[in-house]
Every structure is written in structure tokens, then in C-alpha cells.
Design a protein that fits this description.
51% of the residues lie in helices and 9% in strands. It is an alpha/beta fold. Strand 6, helix 9 and strand 7 form a beta-alpha-beta unit. The two termini are 54 Å apart.
């Protein structure tokens, strides 16, 4: 699989005859890819692909950046080749190349899009502001830099917010829900040039957006200390701007924010409805992008879903790479708990970690808070950590997650626990590896819900109520004779909140 790189500014000539011939097959390939990978992945990685040519059995597809070329080549190249071969047997391979999109000069575009302003009011500031307005950055070691604590964290009252030393790339647990956001953040931190602008990270509360923002800043501070970086919350950005308005010192504010190498704004949704702050952020954003300076933004929603934010701002925020962080999976939560236990040097029984990973699904902060409480209780009381003590210590947190248990929830939990598919719960398969978990699910449905035996039977593939009765008796017998089996059933009951 080749992956050539074209020279920027010298786009390959596209054969209209070739692209016309391949337009319909290419449309079908794109449609099948979209159905296979989903809308989010398709929009991020595959929609930007442009058909260039077909030469000697090799289809050439273009993407706008090297980072995107590497990702598509590593994750989708084989599937692209197979789909093309199904459409056109003469095609032997697919090559992904880099071809930046042609676009007008940034300054021309800016002058067309921005409203009329006084001369010089919207131009990028000089990179050397006066010493009295020195820029606070994460790690720069120039004479005009503000003082720092010994660990490098900026002191209160400076422009850039403090960085949490725990939030580094090394401490970030990567899983399927966050692998795109992690890869993009890492690329921004390590790339010698701006790979995409802006990087927009979004996801629910406590899923790792702020962790990745801090990790980028820490990496730049350690590896490229000459970079001038501001990490700040949207709320603090607004506060600084309002203060500058009140003191009639907005030019100093503009100089501070528009002369940085990397600007990172956390929780940008909080500028929604703040017209003056949005206006300033809009022009700051454009000034930095115009100078090819990196912008990183986080929010709880995608750019198109931000409420109270102007359309032009939503459009700018979606300009670069938008990476969402999905809710955690069981495997990711378990990995986070295991890593946390190693960090604090505490031996936590695997059954307790599994219980917490199943039970606390809200966000990572709640998971870490639960772990901290367990460790503190063990340290102060000297009592061993067990499922029973865990339930006592976390009774309020667990109660907050309590909800009425349904048969579908029971089936899902049992299937996950025994690594089965949900369809196995209703299937006619009688192999012990499937039948035994199905009996456990029937038993728990009888114990934890108010459904009748016939209703439970119908939920398990239309089985008779006598089948459910037999499952209940069998599970009770095995609980009395097999300790490992009894532990599995008890763990499942705890996971389901019983």
C-alpha cells in the first residue's frame, strides 16, 4: 500500500475523463464505507477523500493533511482496496496522497468575511508586547515570562490557568471511546507544524477533555519550552475581557491573546449568549489562524450543537478536526480503575474493580472519587477492601445510580459478564456456555423484577414458564454446591443494584 506525499502548492491535475468514469463506483464505495464505519468516523476521516486518478490499476485518493493520510492508510486502506476491487476488478491498489485544498489568501478571505472595523483594530498584534503586559505561558523561558512554582505551574492571578500535574498523556487511559481524541491531541502536541486548526474536542462531563488539554500543554512545556501557550477556561477568558473593557485596556488584552503560539480554551460553551465575548473570541480566533498559530477548543457539544453561539462562530470551530469523546465502556472503566489502583499502590480485589466498573457508569470523575474513598477508608480503618465494605462506603454514590432493573438490563449485564451476544439470551442454542448464563439471567429476572414467569419466558425467546422454573431451581442448586458459581451470581446481583 503506497502513501505518497505531494508537494504543497502543486496540486495534481485531475483527469475529468477518469473521474467521470469512476464517479458512480466511487459514490458506491463511499456509501458502503459510511454504512460500515458510521456517520461520525465517516465525516472525520473518509468524507474529505477526493478522487484524483486511476493509473496502471492504482486509484489515487487525496486528503488535506499528512496526519489524515497516515490515519486513513493505517485504518481504512485495506477496506478501501477491497471495495474498489469489487466495483472495478481491474483496480489493483489504492494510494492515499496529501494534497492541501486550494483556497484564497487568508488575508483576502478575512477582509471579505469580517465586518468593517477601524484601521488596525483587527490586525494581529506585535509578537513583543510591553513588559508591563507580559504574556503568561505554559513553560516559555524568556525574560518577560512570569514567575512559576517549582513544579512549573503558574501562580494564581496570571493569564494562563494552572496545569494539573496528573493530567499527562502517560496517565491517560486510551480506549475505543477516546482513541480519536487522544491521537489528535497527541498529534497537536508533537507536530512541528500546525496539523489542523482548530482541534475541537467535545464530550460529556468527566470523560477526559480537560485531561487532554492539560496533556497538550504539559508536553509543549517540556518538549518545546520556547512555545508561548495559553490554557484558559472560557469563563476566565470572558472575565479577563470584561475587566479589560472596564479598565479601557482592550488593546493590551488583544496583544496578550493574539501573540501566542498555542491558544487553548476549555468549555467554550460558556460563551454562548455573551455577544461581546463571542465577538472578541471570533476575532482572536481568526487572527491566530491567519498567523498559522494553533487553536485548541473543548466543549460539551459539537460545534453545530452549541447553543447561543453565532453561526459564523460555529462554522469556524468546525473548520479543523472535530473529535468527540464517547461515554466510557466497561473495558475502559476497568482499565482506568486498575491504573488508579497502581498509582496509589493499593491492592484492590479484582471483583471490587469489576463491580465498580459495572456500577458507576456516569463519568471518570465519579470512578476516581469512588476509588479515593475506598483507599482512604482502608488506610484509616485498616479493614480489608471487599465487596461488602465497598457497598457500605459508597452507598450514597451507588444509590444515585440506582434505577428500576429491567429484564433487558439483566440480559445485557449477564451477556457482557460471560462474553456473549444479547441474541444468545433469546436463541435456541443449548450449549452449556450459552444455556448456563441464560439460566442465570432467568433466575435474576425472577429475583429482581416483578414480572411473572410467563412474561419472563417470553423475553427469553418465547420460552414456556416451566423452563423459567427449571432455570431458577438449577441456579439455586448450583449456588449451594459451587462457590465460584455463587460468587458470579452474587457479583451480578450487586452490579444490577440489588
Amino acid at each position: 500500500m503506497g502513501a505518497g506525499v505531494l508537494q504543497e502548492g502543486r496540486p495534481e491535475a485531475v483527469s475529468s475523463e477518469t473521474t467521470n468514469q469512476l464517479a458512480e463506483p466511487w459514490a458506491r464505495v463511499r456509501g458502503r464505507l459510511r454504512a460500515e464505519v458510521g456517520d461520525a468516523a465517516f465525516r472525520s476521516w473518509l468524507k474529505p477523500l477526493v478522487l484524483l486518478s486511476l493509473r496502471e490499476g492504482v486509484v489515487r485518493l487525496a486528503v488535506p493533511s499528512r496526519f489524515m493520510r497516515d490515519w486513513v492508510s493505517g485504518n481504512y486502506a485495506d477496506r478501501l482496496r477491497d471495495l474498489w476491487r469489487e466495483e472495478e476488478p481491474k483496480i489493483l491498489d489504492v494510494e492515499i496522497v496529501v494534497q492541501p485544498p486550494a483556497r484564497p489568501d487568508n488575508r483576502d478571505r478575512m477582509s471579505e468575511e469580517l465586518p468593517e472595523r477601524p484601521a488596525g483594530a483587527n490586525r494581529p498584534a506585535s509578537p513583543a508586547p510591553a513588559p508591563s503586559r507580559a504574556l503568561a505561558t505554559c513553560g516559555a523561558r524568556e525574560p518577560r515570562m512570569p514567575a512559576r512554582d517549582e513544579d512549573g505551574v503558574q501562580r494564581e492571578g496570571e493569564m494562563s490557568g494552572p496545569l494539573d500535574p496528573r493530567f499527562t498523556f502517560d496517565n491517560f487511559i486510551v480506549g475505543k471511546p477516546n482513541e480519536l481524541a487522544y491521537a489528535a491531541a497527541r498529534r497537536v502536541a508533537e507536530a512541528p507544524a500546525v496539523p489542523f486548526n482548530p482541534l475541537f474536542l467535545y464530550g460529556g462531563v468527566g470523560l477526559g477533555k480537560t485531561h487532554l488539554m492539560h496533556a497538550i500543554a504539559w508536553h509543549l512545556r517540556q518538549q518545546r519550552p520556547e512555545k508561548r501557550v495559553i490554557y484558559i477556561s472560557a469563563e476566565k477568558f470572558m472575565y479577563r475581557f470584561v475587566r479589560a473593557l472596564r479598565t479601557k485596556d482592550t488593546m493590551a488584552f488583544k496583544e496578550e491573546f493574539r501573540s501566542v503560539d498555542v491558544l487553548m480554551i476549555d468549555d467554550v460553551q460558556f460563551i454562548g449568549g455573551r455577544e461581546a465575548t463571542q465577538e472578541e473570541f471570533f476575532h482572536t480566533f481568526n487572527a491566530l489562524v491567519d498567523q498559522n498559530r494553533q487553536v485548541v477548543v473543548s466543549a460539551d457539544k459539537s460545534p453545530s450543537d452549541l447553543e447561543g453561539v453565532e453561526e459564523r462562530m460555529r462554522s469556524r470551530l468546525g473548520w479543523g478536526l472535530v473529535a468527540d469523546i464517547h461515554p466510557t465502556t466497561y473495558e475502559l472503566r476497568l482499565g482506568i480503575l486498575q491504573a488508579k489502583a497502581e498509582q496509589v499502590g493499593q491492592a484492590i480485589p479484582p471483583k471490587v474493580l469489576e463491580f465498580l466498573a459495572h456500577k458507576i457508569t456516569s463519568n471518570v470523575r465519579d470512578l476516581e472519587g469512588a476509588m479515593n474513598r475506598i483507599v482512604a477508608h482502608n488506610t484509616l480503618s485498616g479493614l480489608p477492601v471487599s465487596l461488602e465494605t465497598t457497598q457500605e462506603i459508597l452507598h450514597d454514590l451507588l444509590r444515585a445510580n440506582d434505577r428500576k432493573v429491567t429484564i433487558e438490563e439483566i440480559q445485557k449485564r449477564v451477556a457482557e459478564h460471560f462474553n456473549l451476544r444479547m441474541t444468545d439470551m433469546q436463541s435456541a442454542r443449548r450449549a452449556r456456555a450459552v444455556a448456563r448464563p441464560r439460566q442465570i439471567a432467568m433466575y435474576l429476572s425472577k429475583q429482581l423484577t416483578t414480572r411473572s414467569l410467563p412474561e419472563i419466558g417470553r423475553k427469553f425467546g418465547g420460552r414456556d414458564h416451566t423452563t423459567v422454573m427449571h432455570a431458577v431451581r438449577k441456579v439455586e442448586e448450583l449456588k449451594n454446591t459451587d462457590n465460584a458459581f455463587a460468587e458470579d451470581v452474587d457479583l451480578l446481583r450487586r452490579m444490577l443494584g440489588a
